[in-house]
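Sequence decides. Our protein:
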Amino acid sequence: MQQLAPLISLGYWLNLYPPPLVPAVFTVLGIVLSVLFLAGVAAKVWGYRSRKNPPLHRILSRVGRAAITVALVGGAFYFFTYEQLYLLSARFWWILIVIGAVVWKAFIFRDFLSRYPADVRAREARIAKDKYLPR
């Protein structure tokens, strides 16, 4: 528990000259960013393959775009942390990345809850109507 004590102090998060990360934390951070990037690519591919279902395509495309963007920005700060650039490797950037990602995903989730059911009903109605139209 003593090792987690610095995590609750403002001096740790707002220090412009941060000490290097512990190698285990650095490795785990790299793995998390890699998995986030791969999940974003998978969501984009799945969204591309579901083009015939526009509501699903839109949601998956937005989720994939958000995940890839957060992973790339996080990867840039991961590199800055590795190179120990003082201002750019500050810990508060990681807090801003996490807050930004959570807010972005919340907007996507809110849009999903509000628009997706109506879009699915409209798509089903259009498919039912198109069944009787000549091609």
User: Anything to note?
Assistant: The chain has one domain: 21-130.
